[in-house]
Amino acid sequence: MHPLIVFLSKQAQAVRQLEAEAEQALHREKAPERYRGCLLEKVEILSSLPDGIQDLLSGLDPKLQQEVQTAIRDFARRAEQAMEVDSIFFMRQLLYPEDYEQGRPNSLEIFINNLQSKIDPS
């Protein structure tokens, strides 16, 4: 598996874990500050993605490199916007469209799956 896919998959998994911890903090523990903290960590992961991928793009077709950089910058930009407006709702909804159904992949996971098929079309 390409190192870029490995890195992005680990980040997506960390995001899912933080979301699960946030939900537990809010609903089971009744700890809104912990909930907020988990969502802030999620946003920080997403906002740092562009820095994390820089060394992992080598070997990819230049057009695909540009496509990846654009998409990753977009994920980061939306995360940074959520931090700027300090909106817990916005932080929570990052990666999820309005018509999202529980149990389906989020937009980062969909991006990773599509990227994997472009890197390794077999």
Q: Hey, roughly how much beta strand do the residues contain? A: under 5%
Q: Can you summarize the main beta sheet? A: none
Helix content: over 70%
Cα(first) to Cα(last) distance is 12 Å
- Which runs of at least 5 residues are low in confidence (pLDDT < 50)? none
Quick take:
The chain has six helices and no strands.
Name a few traits of the molecule.
single chain; mainly alpha; 6 helices
Describe the protein's architecture and organization.
- Helices cover 73% and strands 0% of the residues.
- It has six helices and no strands.
- The termini are close together.
- 21% of the residues are buried.
Task: Give the topology.
Blueprint: H1 3-27, H2 32-47, H3 49-53, H4 62-85, H5 88-93, H6 107-119
